[in-house]
Amino acid sequence: MSSQSIGSKIGAQSRHDGGARDRIFVRGFVLPVAVGVYDEEQGVTQKVSFTVEAAVAACCVPKGDAIAEVPSYDDLVGAVRAVVADGHINLVETLAERIAERCLRDERIVSVRVRVEKLERGPASVGVEIVRPRMAVPAVELPHLKR
Description:
GTP Cyclohydrolase I, domain 2, alpha+beta, 4 strands, 27% helix, four-stranded antiparallel sheet
């Protein structure tokens, strides 16, 4: 048996028994963001690092080798960019929550971890990390990149 078919069997077993799930992620994605509640944070942007990790539904197993069959890290990047483009947000907690909500709109994502770090405040970075499972977020068809 080839190592590829052994890996496929292990992955399939994990998905069907409710155990380990595949995850997609983006780490250290830095953007200038209008965020902050303090006077010196108003009307300016600051460097913010984003890490987004999404657990993929067990039924989301590609049958071929096509990106359209699975959620992509491009979708995670798109969620971050869309929330940041909406304008100033006071709290990093709100920023993280909005990113999580956008990611969970994709019905193939069952949970998401979002870490938001301000890189220009504090000793090295300050921020928040949240984990949100799919619950009351309505699943909608997201416009995916043409692939």
